[in-house]
Sequence to fold (262 residues):
Amino acid sequence: MSKKNKIYWFEGVTEKGVKALLNDEDSKFRWLRPQQNRRVLVLLMAFGLVLVSLGSYWPTLKTNLNLSNGASVVVYSVTAIFVILVVLGGYSLLRISVRSIADAPDELLDERQIKVRNTSIRYAYYAMGYVVLALLLLMFFGPDLKMFQPEGNDGSYLMIATLFAYASMPSMVMAWRERDI
Amino acid sequence: MLLAMSRNPEEPVYNRIEEARTVLGLSRQDLADKAGVHYQTIGYLEREEYSPSLVLALRIAKSLNQEVSELFSLTPFKKGK
Fold:
C-alpha cells in the first residue's frame, strides 16, 4: 500500500521528499547540519553566484587578460565547469542542509518551522534588494552589457546569477541564521 | 545588513516540559509525535528558546496529562515545586 506522493509545484518540493529530510538523522548529509558547515556552504554559494555573474564580462576580461584563443577556451571551460558544480551542487546541498524547510508548504511543517521559514523569506527579500541594487549599479556603471550579443558583454549570465540567487536566498538565509536545523 | 540582524526578542515562556516528560518516561520524539510537531521543536521549547502558541501549549499539556497552568508560566518556576 503506497501513499501517493503529493507534488507541490508552486514550492518545488514533494511531500515524501520534505518528510524524508525532516526525519533524516542518519544520512550521509549529516555533516551539513552544524551551523559552521552550513555557513561555509552559503559563502561557497555566494562565491559561485559572483563567478556566474562575472561570466557576463568574459569578453572584456578575455581582452584585458590578453589570453590567446586556446588559453581562453581552457580558462573559460574550467571556470564554467567549476561554477556549474558549485552553483548546482551548492543549491542542492543548501536545500538539504535546511531540510527543505525554506521551501516547504505550511501543511508539512510545525508552527516553529513555519515561523523560521517565514522569517528567512522576509530576510531573503531584504537581501535580494541588495542583489538587485548591485545589479542596477553594474548595468549603469559597468562595461556595456548587450543581451545575447556576441560582440558585447553578454548580460544573460547576470540574469542567471540573479535567478539562482532569488531561488536559493531563503535557504541561504536559513542555513546562515539557524543554530539547529 | 544581514550579518548584523538579530532575532526579535520575545517574552520568555517558562515551562516544565522536560520534567513532566521524564516522569512519564517519554523521549522527545515520543512527545513530538503526540503533540504533532518536530522533535527539535520540543528541544527548543524545553530550552525555552521558543514560545508555543496556545494551541500547541494545550496539545503538549494534554500529551503530558497536565494543565497548561501547571506546565507553562510567564515567571520562572521554583525548583522542586
In short: Chain A is about 65% helix and 0% strand.
